[in-house]
Design brief:
Length: 120
């Protein structure tokens, strides 16, 4: 609805993971574990939107920089780690859940998106 109020968006079937990138995702990805190839649809979008881009420089960050504004992005950083002037230039929705960390750990172990060698 953000970019297409008529609801006839040709990419409406695209996953939310591809339409609203998580800026903290680049930090979670272990490039060596994935041999330089991340989740296939993200890599396709990265190669299309950022020709010549380097995976090491942050896939989601480069996709966000190449995306037209206004952009929707997600992160799991504490509010204190975000730029102080962010509220002046962006609309921010903040939600907090202490269960988020443990549930995210279990989901990532099931889905096998991220390499994990730790446990709770």
């Amino acid at each position: 609805m953000l970019h297409n109020p008529n609801l006839d968006n040709p990419v409406a079937d695209e996953s939310l993971w591809l339409r609203s990138h998580e800026i903290s995702m680049d930090m979670h990805m272990d490039i060596e574990h994935f041999k330089g190839k991340l989740w296939h649809p993200i890599m396709e979008k990265f190669e299309k939107m950022c020709p010549g881009g380097r995976v090491e420089d942050g896939v989601c960050l480069q996709i966000l920089e190449a995306s037209p504004g206004p952009r929707v992005m997600k992160c799991h950083y504490p509010f204190s780690l975000l730029p102080p002037d962010m509220l002046q230039s962006a609309k921010v929705r903040f939600s907090l859940s202490y269960l988020c960390i443990k549930s995210k750990y279990h989901i990532f172990n099931i889905v096998q998106v991220h390499f994990s060698s730790g446990h709770f």
